[in-house]
Amino acid sequence: MSSSQSSRNQGKTLAASSGTKPITNTTRTKSTGTYDRDFQQHMIDHGIYPARYKYPDGSVIPKPDRWEEINQILAQPRPSLSPSQFSDGAFEDFAIADTHAAKEKQVSESVIPIIEGRTADRKCRLGGIPFNNLDPLTDGTLKHGNPDIFYGARPEQLDRRVRKDLGGQIIPSTQHDLPIAPNFFLAVKGPDGTLAVAERQACYDGALGARGMHSLKSHGQEEPIYDNCAHTITSIYQGGHLKMYTSHPTEPSAPGKPPEYHMHQLGAYAMTNKSSTFREGAAAYRNARDWAKEQRDTAIAQANEKARAMPQSAAASVNVVSSYTSEASASGTYDDPVSQTSFTSAASTELATSDTEVPKRRHSRREGRSRKRRTCA
Fold first, then answer.
1. Is-contact 293 125, C-beta < 8 A?
2. Residue 124's closest CA among 172, 75, 78, 71?
3. Is the pLDDT of residue 105 over 90?
């Protein structure tokens, strides 16, 4: 046997004994990420649209229902941000921290915590982990989502059968004790980061979150539910500016296609401008985080009710979600225990009137379809 043949045989033996596959000539498909220039067009080609997108015919998707209600919630003041609690000196400290943050990591560690304030349940907040357990959002060529910060629910809030059934839609990580069903995201960029990349990341994160919320709300239903309401918020912080968006699904553009996802800008705040604009932006961020938790809890509670009413044998073959405990629901406030009650009660009158009327389809691309349409819940 020649020395070259001996070397090849030895290499095969080592590969087999180590459990790795022998090296073969294979063709790899390039993964596309938010830093790639073709990422946005890829998303558009698959029905995932950035803010203020216009179709070739000039038409646009209207804002989701209850748009004004969401904006009113975001505008509610926070006691923890009043001048007596957050002084002008505290604002100056924030602005200096932002100025001195030369890298994205420094922004995440020294700037963002000031905007976020106190978080009640740290197990519901995470970031910097790839969403490698979720089903592909498009054709499988996109890199896994990897939000800088996201908020979700504790896994134990959902029945294990449901987690197994909806895992590819709502469980981001293969480490199953991490937050699930995330619907509040923040993309952070340092001074050298680009806004274009942040916006692509926010659009991607928001669509993943909106898909998860849609799967929860449609769980156990005969047909997918399209209520034309947003239940997901995605944000960007870059260069002292905070931008916030909703993301929501709409019906497929044609039979056999997946839902489409749309991003709409809620607000923009110059956080380092002056203390009043910081208070406005930080309040909007914290209120949006509380609102997103309400949406998440409601979707879980609705699905849990169906799960409890479903026989054990039937639950194995139908999408179900388990009970959301009242204790977990009560522990969801953040730095202002009274603020969530205030904006929930303020919206109750509007909710009472709007729930009685089914919103009409408002876009010609959606006309003539037969899927069920429901009001926001």
1. no
2. 172
3. yes
